[in-house]
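The protein record filed below.
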Amino acid sequence: MKEYLIDVDILLGQVRAALERGDPKSAAELLEALRPADQAGVFDDLKPSEQDFLLPTLNVEDSADILEELEEEDAAEVAERLKADKLASILDHMEPDEAADLLGDIEPEKANRVLDVMQEADEVKPLLKHHDETAGGLMTSASIVLKTGMSVKAAISNLQKLSPDDEDIYYLFVTDKQDKLVGVVNLRALVTHPDTTKIKDIMNPEVLSVRADADQEEAANLMKRYDLLALPVVNEEKQLLGVITYDDSFDILEDEATEDIYRLGGLAEETPSDLPVGEAVKKRLPWLVVNLFMALISVTILSMFETTISQMAALAAFFPLVAGVSGSAGTQTLTVTVRSIALGEIEPKNALKVMLNQFGLSLVNGMSIGLIITLIALVWKGSVMLGLIAGIATLVNILSTAITGVVIPLVIQKFKYDPALASPIIVTALTDALGYLIYLGLASAAITWLI
């Protein structure tokens, strides 16, 4: 088997050199020899002026592959610079769902002009009706649909006539006279039965589907759970609207995982590392301000125990341990909970079971960490009482994270907010505040034994 390895930097230099000497044809030949993902990688690193100089020379199929492989924002920028007729020609060679996504990312007026001159507009227009974040926005048109009364011979003849792409024939979905989804047929069944056999007699009526208005993550998780290569999308009347293929579901799971990671970090959306400072500030500063006001809870509690702290300054040395370790425990519980919510593994009805499980885990971890903190205080400060207070406060605080780390995300989800975005700030603020309250409360009660 021949290995396929390329040095993108070398190719990028060769393409740029060809463009600089006014030879876009040679640059295009270099790109056209690559696979689509590598074409997009090289093309994306070119300056906009270089892209515009090169694109008219590329054949339309390669142009379509590049736009499909580029990030949505980058593809939209390229599309905005193209003339309507040129863009229409490229979109005609793209998958309908990819074309619909790209049209949805450019100016509506231009999108309408492009649709007016597209040859495949009828396949794309129905997909534009659905929101991007739904199963309908993720699906592509179903190019192969069998009818219940169709014979095996007619079905095979239809396949030969349409010559579908590989990804279009993982499953052959079956509809009735009202276009309602009623079954699915695999290729093996189709080619192993006599020509006169009716599709209704060999189809499997137990076919999974998803509503067009369902969240795209729900559709992707359904495909992952049942190892589906394709998932039909239906409307309220169970009529077949389109199909979601495995490559699209994989992209969604990746995007959703990335989104969860950003939101756990307090960012409402993906923030590239090279984002201009002004835009980055707009995305990050508001959540820092929210975090600031939540932190005022801890400040208020600390101010309540100023007398206790002034009587024994050594208490302050253990603030980072009590709050920091408990905060880490809360983050662990919260991460597991948010991810499980996203995968549909946790619901309000089984919250108690999850909390009990987390409570048992937190008890073991809390006792272990509490004991270590007690020993640290004994060796460092020579005070068993200080160690016991800090250790007990840490234990109780870690136990509390088993509740807050599960309940808060579920409550936030109940109110239709994203638990990944708001939960970290709330859980962290409560963990810090509760840790200080327990620690300083115990210290105040036992102050006569501490000094």
User: Anything to note?
Assistant: Residues 351-381 form the longest helix (31 residues). DSSP finds 23 helices and six strands in the chain. The mean pLDDT is 84. Strands lie at 145-147, 172-175, 181-185, 210-211, 230-234, 240-245.
